[in-house]
Amino acid sequence: MSTPLAGLPPRVEVYEVGPRDGLQNEAAALPVEVKAEFVRRLVAAGLRTVELTSFVPKRWIPQLGDAEELLALLGDDQPSRAPVLVPNEKGLARAVAAGAREVAVFASATESFARRNLNRSVAESLAAFAPVVEQARAAGLPVRGYVSMCFGDPWEGAVPLDQVAAVALRLVEFGCAEISLGDTIGVGTPGQVAALLALLDREGLGADRIAVHFHDTYGQALANTLLALQHGVTTVDASAGGLGGCPYAGSATGNLATEDLVWQLDGLGVDTGVDLPALARTSLWMAGQLGRPSPSRALAALAPTLTAPTDQES
Amino acid sequence: MSTPLAGLPPRVEVYEVGPRDGLQNEAAALPVEVKAEFVRRLVAAGLRTVELTSFVPKRWIPQLGDAEELLALLGDDQPSRAPVLVPNEKGLARAVAAGAREVAVFASATESFARRNLNRSVAESLAAFAPVVEQARAAGLPVRGYVSMCFGDPWEGAVPLDQVAAVALRLVEFGCAEISLGDTIGVGTPGQVAALLALLDREGLGADRIAVHFHDTYGQALANTLLALQHGVTTVDASAGGLGGCPYAGSATGNLATEDLVWQLDGLGVDTGVDLPALARTSLWMAGQLGRPSPSRALAALAPTLTAPTDQES
Questions:
Q1: What percent of chain A has pLDDT over 90?
Q2: Where in chain B are the domains?
Q3: pLDDT tens, residue by residue, B118-175
Q4: Spatial separation of the C-alpha atoms in residues B177 and A175, rounded to whole Å
Q5: CATH no. of A13-305
Q6: What pLDDT does residue B249 have?
Q7: Which chain B residues are within 8 Å of A195, Cβ to Cβ?
Q8: How many cross-chain Cβ pairs, A to B, lie less than 8 Å apart?
Q9: Does A192 touch chain B (CB under 8 A)?
Q10: Which of B186, B195, B260 lies nearest to residue A219, judging by beta carbons?
């Protein structure tokens, strides 16, 4: 039984980031076969959009050093939308050669994080993304643009909204089809979300081209998501089992868990296409692969109700 | 820096339930001196309403078997509102004799929980509460009425809203000044909250006499709270450090942590009077007393930023 809430969209696209954003923050690199199986199980659980991996140099993020192998191993076993992260033109070339069908680039709203994460100023990193987006589009690939540190930065504190908006709008100018607004350290609260969405709307970037990417570091992710849905956003980033965080920001732990999100949307009668028990079994299986429990509250509550996962699950 | 959200109240009363609802669910009974110190530290952190304890028979809940001693030990060190739970007329008489200044009664919206928790039907338990409320008011004490299992029941599943409303309205008829709507197993989502508040409003019970009591079992507590605030509710139950749950419902863990709530309200510029670092230090101190970590996400994120608690804190 579900109880709708006035003003919410009938359908939400869950943008699953576990295989990329989640696994890049695990201490150990998993075998590529396990990653492929993870993606297959997520797709079988109804996730239509799964960010598969990142074409970063292996020396930057060894955990994702097998991007070509993963795409080859998956073959046609891919979700409807299967974006991969690319940090620069070289990464894009690798992704195109590997058969990627959509890419994402990752910008920072703050100078401090740009310096630490991208080793460039905000302006320099944006300038470097322009040809990446252009070449991707020339190759027929849609591009998502991430904006990180939208609501707070561990070094700079509060982030002026117009600074966030400027970065988002540049990415749109370059040709990004979707902008994902990231609360990388999880400090944001619903008023900030509303104010940023309103500002972007006034600047011509409507909620239909925006995704939200909240971290649950301070427990705020679902309340912020609700507010974004009330403002017309229909794409929400989440990570199966709450995998991942941010390797460059010490205090940042906990992507919004996909299970917590889907519990809410199921309760609201908002269609996601996700089979929650199948997703939860997938996350429990992944927790077993990683040897540590999931931080998802809904997953912990659901776990006793699930039958044991089997190797035949997918 | 805070960013307000249109439609929210300027001020929220945090109704702290840690010393009663939290500690009654701990395996071990703490020394009464530690409980008194907990209350003093909560008050020092700015909490104006703290539910102190329960005047239940010691054989029912041994953890709270020292209610008289606690009130005697606290003396004048009490918050502005210092309710105590009373299960029946005997408990009320004990509370009055001990100098309690406000009481609360605890009703169930479902037959299954009434049978298991109160050993009576819903109708029988309500009938038994009528004289309790009457006598309390005759003694000059305001009465809060809890309604548990408002959004789901582990034995019955979904709970019809008119069934919840009927119980709430009976408690108001008896003379309860405030009704706390409890999601005892934490399954509710924002649509249910909106629907119940709208129904109660149509029946004459406005948001100004309603408190919400959410559990974070499925990670939904803060989103549900946000929805309640948008509908005019200004009293929110929470438990320092997320202490407590429901001893009669196996799957129920995790009151909304006061830290997670105050982080959100601080971010929204909603006044609570609570000093978040002082509260967090109190919860870390209590976690040390209990020998287990707190489930509060905000507390975990804040902990590294806090100086060590001292015995001189309060």
A1: 87
A2: 18-305
A3: 889 999 999 999 999 999 999 999 999 999 999 999 899 999 999 999 999 999 999 9
A4: 58
A5: 3.20.20.70
A6: 43
A7: 3
A8: 127
A9: yes
A10: B260
Report how far Cα A207 is from the mean position of its chain's Cα atoms. Answer: 17
**With contacts defined as CB-CB under 8 Å, which chain B residues touch A222?**
219-220, 222-223
In the structure encoding, which two tokens stand for residue A264, read together? 């809410």
User: In this predicted structure, what is the pLDDT of residue B63?
Assistant: 93
Does the pLDDT of residue B4 top 60, yes or no?
A: yes
Closest-approach residue (CA) in chain A for B7: A191
d(CA B280, CA B300): 9
Token pair 């150990």 is at which residue?
A28
Structure tokens at B196: 């119940």
Residue B58 in contact with residue B89, Cβ under 8 Å? no
* ipTM of the modeled complex: 0.94
Give A203's contacts (C-beta < 8 A, 6+ positions apart): A165, A169
Indicate if the pLDDT at residue A314 is higher than 70: no
The per-residue pLDDT for range A27-53, each reduced to its tens digit, is 878 999 999 999 999 999 999 999 999
CB A167 within 8 A of CB A205: no
Mean pLDDT of B178-204: 97
CA of residue A214 relative to chain centroid, distance: 9
**Interface check A227 vs B, CB under 8 A:** yes
Q: Provide mean pLDDT across the span B184-211.
A: 97
- Collect all residues of chain B within an 8 Å Cβ-Cβ radius of residue A217: 297, 301
Closest chain B residue by Cα to residue A228? B223
The answer to whether residue B313 scores a pLDDT higher than 50 is: no
Taking the CA atoms of chain B, what radius of gyration do you get in angstroms? 18
Pick B18-305's CATH classification: 3.30.1360.120, 3.60.10.10, 3.20.20.70, 3.40.50.1100: 3.20.20.70
Q: What is the pLDDT of residues B245-261, one digit of tens each?
A: 544 444 446 899 999 99
- A263 has a chain B CB within 8 A of its CB: yes
